[in-house]
Design a protein that fits this description.
Number of helices: 5
Order of helices and strands: HHEHEEHEH
Radius of gyration: 16 Å
Helix content: 40-55%
Distance between the termini: 20 Å
CATH superfamily: Alpha/Beta hydrolase fold, catalytic domain
Number of domains: 1
Number of strands: 4
CATH architecture: 3-Layer(aba) Sandwich
Strand content: 5-15%
Oligomer: single chain
């Protein structure tokens, strides 16, 4: 869906295969938000060094604890990350980093995922970014397994990124920021 909107994508796991095995037993590493955010920031810096991607704006799409890691990384890299989308995420786990997020933030939550919805509402209040929004997908549960639910999420995310990534990049180019473009 993102690619059909002209958005380049990079998909990767924040845990190594060995860590995944450990985490399946302990559930510890998936909640190590600092570790996950460090890895995401590292991947962002790597992408910035590549000739084919250095000119592109950066947006993060995260689910569950990956959304918290995306918000923490966005707060650490405000000059690079222009937008964050969270699907059924746990932005509350970003804790003290929430007020430091400058990227536009879209929180997508299932209407039947009451606990995560409440956590997202609280996190939304702690975000001080200029553009933020919570979209509730009616009838959807945590994993958005209901017919059509993931499609709604995909469309909302693609529209959000298409608007905020393109817009931010164009503003930077108009301001003559070619030596330090927004990614």
């Amino acid at each position: 869906m993102l690619q059909s909107h002209g958005i380049a994508t990079l998909l990767f796991d924040l845990l190594t295969p060995e860590e995944e095995v450990i985490d399946q037993t302990t559930l510890r590493l998936r909640f190590d938000i600092d570790l996950l955010a460090q890895r995401l920031a590292g991947a962002t810096r790597w992408a910035q060094e590549q000739a084919t991607t250095r000119h592109l704006p950066v947006g993060y799409f995260g689910a569950s604890t990956g959304a918290a890691a995306a918000l923490v990384a966005a707060a650490r890299l405000p000059q690079l990350v222009t937008s964050v989308v969270s699907r059924g995420g746990r932005p509350d786990l970003a804790g003290d980093s929430l007020p430091g997020v400058r990227a536009s933030v879209l929180l997508l939550v299932g209407g039947k995922d009451e606990l995560v919805l409440a956590l997202n509402r609280k996190a939304l209040q702690k975000l001080h970014c200029k553009t933020k929004r919570l979209i509730i997908v009616p009838g959807a549960t945590h994993l958005f397994e209901e017919p059509g639910a993931l499609e709604k999420v995909a469309h909302a995310a693609a529209d959000w990124f298409a608007h905020y990534l393109t817009r931010r990049r164009d503003v930077g180019a108009a301001a003559g920021a070619s030596s330090s473009p927004s990614h």
